[in-house]
Design brief:
Blueprint lengths: L6 H4 L1 H16 L6 H8 L4 E3 L3 E3 L7 H17 L2 E5 L5 H15 L3 H5 L1 H4 L7 E3 L14 E6 L13 H27 L7 H5 L6 E7 L9 E6 L5 E6 L5 E5 L2 E5 L6 E5 L1 H6 L9 E4 L6 E8 L6 E2 L11 E2 H15 L11
Parallel strand pairs: 1-10, 2-3
Antiparallel strand pairs: 3-11, 4-5, 5-6, 6-13, 7-12, 8-11, 8-13, 9-10, 9-12, 14-15
């Protein structure tokens, strides 16, 4: 049984529409088609290193500690992304995580799509493609298990493969602690010794996402993940060495060079709103690969849906809103428009 999702079958209409368009463009050789320009952007992106921060310096003297915190805040303002080493997650655990998620994704598509029966995940955890896509540029050539942390605990994952369950639990516990530590540093650098994150971003409200990007026969036409910002406070990402993550810096797309020792941190929409635009939630995407599959694991630091997000500085750029209200607006926009609008919906 094939393990890959049936992209071509499920999205046949979109593929046919694109083929017809390509034929029309060939006939009209002078066409200055914007879609064609967008495709070319994928192959002229410059690769570079993200700011690299050694978190061991947080355990040294006061001067080293404060310099490290300032670097974290500066990267969050200027890039919205940075990478950390000596982050407390062992290389052995990261390797184990990759091995276990590879095993899950290699199961047949039928098993994965009935995740509640075969894997004991909550129904709806397994996601692939983009049901709302109206053109190939909105299609995500990827599959994922989006898992609430509460589903990972041993009691609720009684029927789950023990190695996968225990590895996810170890990973989630370690990166949860890292995420809260980074969030508190970022709050402190804004002048707020805040317990907000500790009180509101609990294991019951945060998520782990296992991602796989299968080889794609048309990498110049389809994203692994279309351009977006994250709807959380912070995301912690571990990616393999294949590469494919790209982000916007100074109005241009750049490719993130993989670093086997590092975890990637990015600011989400909620932190941009909370910081009153000091920290930046920037657009990023994943491009596809013709020959090689890519794996990554992401942790999302989220509050409960009832939590109210309010800028920590005045005058506030954004009106107050609950996380639940924000999620509903994003889902509504994606359904109606094919893509997310995000924070501009909540400007005062």
């Amino acid at each position: 049984m094939d393990s890959d999702p049936p992209f071509h079958k499920a999205y046949k209409t979109l593929f046919d529409k694109t083929a017809d368009k390509a034929t029309a463009n060939r006939i009209n050789s002078n066409s200055n088609n914007k879609d064609h320009e967008d495709m070319l952007q994928l192959v002229i992106v410059k690769e570079c290193d993200l700011p690299l921060i050694d978190l061991r310096r947080l355990e040294l003297g006061e001067r080293e500690r404060e310099e490290c915190k300032s670097e974290i805040a500066r990267a969050s303002q200027e890039w919205g992304f940075f990478q950390v080493v000596n982050h407390g997650v062992s290389g052995r655990l990261l390797q184990k995580m990759k091995i276990e998620q590879e095993k899950v994704f290699k199961q047949s598509f039928d098993k994965k799509s009935q995740e509640d029966k075969h894997l004991n995940f909550s129904a709806g955890s397994y996601r692939w493609g983009t049901p709302s896509a109206t053109c190939l540029r909105q299609l995500a050539w990827s599959e994922a298990f989006h898992i609430p942390l509460k589903d990972i605990s041993t009691s609720s994952a009684a029927g789950l493969d023990y190695n996968l369950s225990s590895t996810m639990e170890q990973f989630a516990t370690t990166v949860s602690s890292l995420a809260l530590n980074l969030a508190e540093i970022l709050a402190e650098k804004l002048g707020h010794k805040s317990t907000f994150f500790q009180a509101n971003c609990l294991p019951s409200t945060c998520y782990l996402r296992l991602n796989r990007y299968p080889p794609c026969p048309i990498p110049s036409e389809v994203y692994g993940l279309m351009p977006h910002t994250d709807s959380d406070f912070l995301t912690i990402l571990h990616q393999d060495q294949v590469g494919g993550l790209q982000l916007v810096k100074d109005g241009r797309w750049i490719a993130v060079k993989p670093n086997p020792a590092a975890l990637i941190i990015n600011i989400g929409d909620l932190f941009q709103a909370w910081s009153n635009n000091v920290y930046k939630s920037v657009q990023h995407r994943v491009v596809t690969n013709l020959a090689v599959e890519r794996f990554s694991t992401a942790y999302f630091l989220c509050p409960s849906y009832e939590t109210v997000i309010q800028s920590c500085r005045e005058p506030s750029v954004y009106r107050k809103f609950s996380f639940g209200e924000y999620r509903r607006q994003v889902q509504e926009d994606v359904k109606m428009l094919g893509s997310k609008i995000g924070l501009p919906r909540f400007v005062v």
